[in-house]
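From the shared-data thread, chain only:
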Amino acid sequence: MSVFSFVVRNPALAPLFVIAGTGCVAAVTFPAWMLMKHPDITVNRANGHPWEKIQQDQNTKMLNMHKEFFENRRNLKKPTF
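Structure, as tokens:
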């Protein structure tokens, strides 16, 4: 018995399979996206220090509650230590 024939016989379970499938796909793709794009995670050592490439006014967070903080930092020059 395939999944498709099971859903045809029980149509009320179709939303359950869709939502669970979407959750499974999101659970795999979000960590993969974070490994490739987020500057705090380094997988490739040849890349060096990716966090040094972030500008003063660049936000790296997914949710930002204080947008004016980064807008006020736009004219600051990069500090040297």
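The chain has two domains: 1-37, 48-81.
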